[in-house]
């Protein structure tokens, strides 16, 4: 498994100042770099230069970046992606601020996926010498520690799952199918390392973002996060609640442009010998929102 | 302040076996006594004979019982209730299983309120000698420790508040009024000791129950409670969420007959020098559901 | 029960600047008033003018203040204290900054206890109109919400318990005695309202302070508090741990002068019909430190 | 990285019945298989046949088993181990109940390390179809979900670290060295996937076990675990506390034979691009026990 993790998410925002306020003051990220309508942010426990990039103008996903282990991995992936029939371009150092050479793939779902192994090392807020468990000065707002995963929509989940398996060596931690005797794939949650998911996709329009998520320490941190959301007038989609899928705990909410965010905690440890869990459509509501066993229409319909 | 606490709630349930299963296996209460269509239950950390009584037939509140300190308190309250103009009857030992003499008052809101100072002592599950913090054998289902408060509806909140102040020496911890310049009372949360509330009422039909609540240790216990609700197919009204009013944490849900229950944690310490907090109608949604800042229609409309 | 709560603790500190830093930056209290070697502090969820007063010079307890409901209570207590044989003086408005007339009693244990019903109202950090559950700007350091209780030492616990029962109308929530057949009182935890304890005492030298405690929201808040203690180099006595007595959760630590503090969460609801729990000396270690079932010598021997 | 995780720990216990009671009733593991003085146990969230094996007779570590991805990994590791100069034997299917062919390596620290890719699949308690987040029937005792890591002692930490790097492709998440200008290695915490550590070692006698650890959901689960330990008279070494190293939360305790166990929660996500954190000996106490910043002699000296 040569893909390490979701490294960055680029999104469009209708108003950069408002978006900056949300990601900096509500979520607690730091602005590392800014140029001409674009802001590069990282969370306190992230070492790389940026994990969320805001582009002024519009709304929705621009592209995803996944970090890979080394250049050899890039070469291997390039070959496999071409063999799969995907559109693959070489990405040059500097195409993205502080990011090295890499690949730019158009997924079968029409999303742009960038892969890279080099990015400027900035370091976490607690450092590499005798560190504290969190920054001494305290955290700003929710204080998200790091980016975790993203959920995108696709017309053909089975095709996209095969792409991530064959080209990127991901595996499905959990899958949602039509029923016990109907293996039509509705959604898949896939991992590249040991998390429950590093990417997930659900049947829907190509090229769209359902949400991207930050990893939180635990359930108690979600109450604090929810309080901060209320103080900052952040619209909550659903949660705090338990997920059936991944067994995690969650709050879904929206940035000022309408892009959906999640704070997520918990989950289990996967790995190469993981056996995929299957959900059937009759239990889908329990799978998504284990607590309430119902899904609101907004959660199903709003993507950006 | 001579009223000690909400001692018991009698409710009608459409099917006693189903209700018994809910209160015993989902909530974790113990059946202490049963006769002829009636089940008397208590929670593990309650010492008195019962706190919830289920009556087969119909749905909704039968009556509330508040425990007072002593017989002198009963006599004092009787006089004040009569002076207030309420209907007051003497209740005899044995009218309720294991409960002593007392008073039966018809509140201005048409609810029946019983007051008593004696009830058979059964003891908590952890006992009075070198106790553990919770029962060694573990807890069943949610494992509610004790009854906490109730919320009822009334056509005239201001009248009912005055009754609880003048006759029962309660005080308002928090009040919801029309607006900064409109002191029409919409709801009041009142305490008799040091809790945020021992009873609350909101404008609505006379004689109805909105919910009764159990006190839980903390926010983590609410996640466990929610998981148990999901496993037992319990319909959740809303939560886990933060309350603005009382600052507590909450999950609202329904018993099989449709009576609303709550598990509640947190809150602050009140007392005789407490200054009442005021909420205005424009902030009512934030007051009820601080997390989501919206109230679903079901929460407003369903009473039993 | 006319005593409302522990209102204030006056302590000596060897260095006011260091103590101020501890109570303000580590614990998160605010300095409300200062004069000539004395600092008056309150916590964010306290409404009265001050709860902790630091006096430069030496170490140890100066005096305790308990707030009572009204002047009539003061008069009643004065009579009962005199009948008990205690030394009682009238305290005048202004003897303590912002505190009204009251009583000053020398306890049988040689501690000075002040009682008062009036103190300047400052208000909590969240206010009385549509409040947030905690201050929007966040909390400083541990962010203690309020003072809770104190534990003092006495040569004659049985005598002191009788004083608090007869004169102040406290009751024992829990007691530690010699053994099943030895009712020599070693310690008593007493309440005036509905908490597990508002004061406690244990056999030892007269006039000494074991600790005073702040009330915290829950167990998760104790981990955060412990982290802050580590960052601020605060010596921890013991904890995070569970108490057997009171069933609460705790961390004990020291201020820079060596006065012991506690952050405490949890516990149960008491009241006038509470039946006292009894611990026997063979289970004392489990009673104090339920988690570890052993007590270090420092905890037993260090008082100020 | 072809090693997946710590798969099993074999330990000697002085009395099998007592040990069985500890691992089954206190920790909550299930006995999957027993023969002739040996008990094979697994935790509820583990899918493989066993993770802890108890052997009657004596005390201390017998051997460790790490699961690898496939047979090719075994062959590769065999070659690298031989090149390193370690003693490597082939292990046959059936040498361990339900475990396939593999390798048996004598580490430079004289510990026996087994590597295998096949072991009978038993499945978790929640299964692969529409699972609940935890077993409906509830958990027994502490209810540990899964084995996590182990800490062993070695005369030459630098040599053992090089072995795990060169032969098994582990990386150091954190290291403890003599000082800023003294890079003598005292301890190393190494991972094979994305956890903070899958194995750790500290300078000491060869062949010894310091502890093995279970992964827990969060800090709240550690309070519950501590309560269960108290109820079951389990000796606690230290905790609940925060680790500096790994940023996790911990309780250390002993099984009836004196083998040290840990329940561990929290931590961060590592990976192939992780930069090693360094602790210096002057901060070692804070690194081990961030909360108390001191280490008791028992923690340093007791190994089995």
Query: How many helices of chain A?
Result: 6
Largest interface: A-D, 44 and 44 residues
Tell me the quaternary state: homotetramer
**Radius of gyration of chain A using CA atoms only:** 18 Å
CATH topology (level 3) name of the largest domain in chain A:
2,3-Dihydroxybiphenyl 1,2-Dioxygenase, domain 1
Proportion of residues in extended strands of chain A: 35-45%
Topology:
Four copies of one chain form a homotetramer.
Chain A: E1 3-13, H1 16-26, E2 30-35, E3 38-42, E4 52-56, E5 60-68, H2 71-84, E6 87-91, E7 102-106, E8 112-116, E9 146-154, H3 157-166, E10 171-179, E11 182-191, E12 199-203, E13 208-215, H4 219-231, E14 236-242, E15 248-254, E16 260-266, E17 277-280, H5 284-288, H6 297-301
Parallel strand pairs in A: 1-4, 5-8, 9-12, 10-17, 13-16
Antiparallel strand pairs in A: 1-5, 2-3, 3-4, 6-7, 7-8, 9-13, 10-11, 11-12, 14-15, 15-16
Question: Can you put this structure into words, describing what you see?
Answer:
- The longest helix of chain A is centred in the N-terminal third of the chain and has 14 residues, at 71-84.
- A 9-stranded mixed beta sheet of chain A has the order 14-15-16-13-9-12-11-10-17. An 8-stranded mixed beta sheet of chain A has the order 2-3-4-1-5-8-7-6, covered by helices on one side.
- The first copy, chain A, has 304 residues and is an alpha/beta fold.
- The relative contact order of chain A is 0.16.
- Chain A folds into 2 domains: 3-116, 2,3-Dihydroxybiphenyl 1,2-Dioxygenase, domain 1, CATH 3.10.180.10; 146-301, 2,3-Dihydroxybiphenyl 1,2-Dioxygenase, domain 1 (Roll), CATH 3.10.180.
- The first copy, chain A, contains 6 helices and 17 strands.
- The radius of gyration of chain A is 18 Å and the shape is globular.
- At the A-D interface, β17 of A face β17 of D.
């Amino acid at each position: 498994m040569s893909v390490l993790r979701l490294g960055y998410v680029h999104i469009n925002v209708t108003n950069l100042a408002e978006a900056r306020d949300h990601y900096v003051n509500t979520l607690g990220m730091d602005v590392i770099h800014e140029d001409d309508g674009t802001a590069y942010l990282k969370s306190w426990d992230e070492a790389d230069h940026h994990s969320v990039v805001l582009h002024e103008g519009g709304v929705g996903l621009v592209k995803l970046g996944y970090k890979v282990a080394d250049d050899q991995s890039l070469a291997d992936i390039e070959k496999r992606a071409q063999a799969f029939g995907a559109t693959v371009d070489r990405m040059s150092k500097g195409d993205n601020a502080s990011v090295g050479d890499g690949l730019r793939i158009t997924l079968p779902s029409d999303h742009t996926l960038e892969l890279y192994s080099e990015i400027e090392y900035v370091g976490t807020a607690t450092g590499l010498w005798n560190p504290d468990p969190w920054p001494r000065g305290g955290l700003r707002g929710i204080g998200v520690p790091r980016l975790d995963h993203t959920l995108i929509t696709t017309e053909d989940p089975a095709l996209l799952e095969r792409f991530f398996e064959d080209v990127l060596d991901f595996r499905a931690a959990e899958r949602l199918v039509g029923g016990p005797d109907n293996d039509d794939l509705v959604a898949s949650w896939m991992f590249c390392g040991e998390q429950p998911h590093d990417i997930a996709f659900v049947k829907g329009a190509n090229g769209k973002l359902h949400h991207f998520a930050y990893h939180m320490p635990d359930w108690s941190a979600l109450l604090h996060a929810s309080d901060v959301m209320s103080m900052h007038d952040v619209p909550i989609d659903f949660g705090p609640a338990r997920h059936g899928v991944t067994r995690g705990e969650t709050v879904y909410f929206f940035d000022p442009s309408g892009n959906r965010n999640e704070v997520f905690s918990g989950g289990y440890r996967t790995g190469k010998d993981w056996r995929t869990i299957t959900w059937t459509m009759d239990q889908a509501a329990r799978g998504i929102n284990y607590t309430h066993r119902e899904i609101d229409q907004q959660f199903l319909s709003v993507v950006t």
